[in-house]
Design goal:
With 505 residues, this protein is mainly alpha-helical. It has helices at 7-14, 27-30, 55-78, 90-118, 122-150, 159-163, 170-180, 184-213, 217-247, 251-280, 288-307, 318-323, 328-338, 352-361, 366-382, 431-439, 441-444, 450-455, 464-471, 486-504; strands at 406-407, 410-414, 417-421, 424-428. Strand 1 (406-407) and strand 2 form a beta hairpin. Bound molecules: fe (iii) ion and zinc ion.
Length: 505
């Protein structure tokens, strides 16, 4: 009788053992993409697969998760789960997340498939292929949540169309476009390491706890289902970095630059999450500042101590990101509050209880800098003059966020940088964004900046209703203040009929 093959051997036969080097064609012609970035790989077999998942095990495991997930999604829909939300304001955070992130999951699906084909090295191919399928699943599960909430609430009716057009969605879109138009090793460093490993806890932990605190079981469910995939992706991110650094010393400075670049790009992208955590969750989880301290300063600090032995230092501008921890959420909320008339979700005036929480969470900055502005806006709204900013903002050429961030050492002065390239001047929100541009100007001068596009007449017309039309947004329903919106009216009606129901019972 044949002896049982040990798991490790079996895994080798089922992966490395199935690969071969080409003979009729040169390997470099078959794999044209994995050398031009200057990364040197001497032995692909050094690539470690910590999970040792074979295809059969992968599909069995994922199918089990899908069965559970769809059972919960069905019961949520049948039981009108949306009635259990903490408040309809919570939907603002959800809309931003679902419209901003779901298309990125799909982009990740496509690009990991591309890597699975174009990276030589079987271990890397298998990991990329599995992650590609995971990401497709994530996109699908999030679209199920969109589909459910779209039956009742505004702003979720055309997310793919919006993703290519709406001004603030160009922030996540351009982040991912940047990554997929880079070489394969930069993509791994950008997405698998910088985003999935270093920064993902700042997105998923607060957002999923936020969903749980605020009664959003649809999101909690897809979050849980994605979590075990996510731990695989994070491990891959760390393994990729170690692999690149161990293969050749000359890889170190290349990887360091990518870490510097993608740390800053990720930090800017996550300022949207900071706003959600501090301003958009009716029931708070933790402040952005606390999350930054826990997940970046502590955990990230330990990680970069560990990577020090390869000659890697903490990301450039990490000190600036840390200085910004008690302001970015307030700065970004201020941007969205002013431009709610052009957004696919509502903003609102902040009540006293919420202000007290902000004051406690941000003792050094809130009362001094941000409370007075919120008080003024609240007063203006009470006087029937709710503030909307009718001038289009200048955007940062790199991160594409309106220029609302401030000087590292002065929270009262807008941070403004500019560079000249081929006779044109480009503007940036920070040293980090300027640094990224200066390194690859040919790439970023091509950026599709929403405000420039509006001014050039490429977005449906010159007036706000024209642009909203072109975005497929419905004026007075999807946008404007929450106070007085159809969504508020619907929510209040639901809650009132619930009280009547409870009184009769
Ligand atoms: Fe994903
Ligand atoms: Zn920027």
């Amino acid at each position: 009788m044949a002896k049982r093959i040990p798991l490790k051997k079996k895994y080798e036969y089922m992966t490395r053992g199935l690969a071969w080097d080409t003979t009729y064609q040169d390997m470099d012609d078959v794999y044209p993409y994995d050398k031009f970035e200057g990364i040197k790989i001497h032995n692909w077999d050094d690539w470690v697969d910590p999970f040792r998942l074979t295809q059969d095990a992968y599909w069995k495991f994922q199918a089990e998760k899908e069965r559970k997930l769809y059972a919960v999604i069905d019961s949520y829909a049948q039981n009108n789960g949306q009635l259990g939300l903490s408040d309809a304001r919570y939907l603002g955070a959800l809309k931003l997340f679902l419209t901003g992130v779901s298309p990125l999951e799909y982009q990740a699906h496509r690009h990991f498939a591309h890597l699975g084909r174009n990276i030589r090295g079987t271990g890397a191919q298998v990991s990329a292929q599995m992650q590609s399928i995971d990401e497709l699943r994530h996109a699908q599960t999030q679209i199920h949540a969109i589909s459910h909430y779209n039956k009742f609430f505004d702003g979720l009716h055309d997310f793919t169309h919006m993703h290519d057009r709406v001004w603030y969605l160009s922030v996540p879109k351009s982040f991912f476009d940047d990554a997929v138009s880079a070489g394969p090793f930069e993509f791994f460093t950008a997405i698998s390491f910088s985003f999935e490993y270093v920064l993902t806890n700042l997105l998923f932990v607060p957002f999923m706890s936020g969903a749980a605190y605020n009664g959003d079981l649809a999101t909690v469910t897809f979050g849980f289902s994605a979590q075990s995939d996510e731990s695989r992706h994070m491990t891959l991110g760390l393994e990729v970095i170690k692999f690149l650094l161990e293969q050749d010393e000359e890889n170190v400075p290349i990887v360091q630059h990518w870490i510097d670049k993608w740390f800053w790009r990720g930090h800017r992208l996550l300022s949207l999450v900071g706003m959600m955590m501090d301003y958009m969750l009716p029931k708070k989880v933790m402040s952005w500042k606390d999350a930054w301290e826990m997940y970046f300063e502590e955990q990230g600090g330990a990680l970069f101590d560990d990577l020090g032995r390869y000659g890697i230092r903490p990301p450039m501008h990490a000190d600036v990101a840390t200085k910004e921890k008690d302001r970015i959420s307030h700065e970004v909320w201020a941007i969205f509050y002013q431009y709610t008339h052009a957004a696919g979700f509502h903003t609102w005036d902040i009540d006293d209880e919420h202000k007290a929480w902000l004051s406690e969470s941000y003792p050094d900055t809130f009362d001094k800098y941000y409370r007075p502005r919120l008080d003024l806006w609240q007063q203006m709204a009470a006087d029937g003059n709710r503030y909307y900013n009718m001038a289009l903002p200048q955007l940062c050429q790199t991160c594409q966020i309106p220029m609302g961030f401030t000087e590292p050492d002065d929270p009262t002065t807008i941070c403004f940088r500019s560079s000249e390239y081929k006779g044109d001047r480009y503007h940036f929100c920070s040293d980090g964004c300027q640094y990224i541009f200066d390194h690859e100007p040919e790439k970023y001068i091509q950026a599709w900046l929403p405000v420039h596009q509006i001014f050039q007449g490429n977005c449906g017309g010159a007036e706000i209703p024209d642009v909203l039309n072109w975005y497929h947004l419905n004026l007075d329903a999807d946008n404007m203040a929450y106070e007085g919106s159809p969504e508020e009216a619907l929510w209040n009606e639901w809650m009132a009929s619930r009280r009547v129901g409870a009184a009769q019972a």
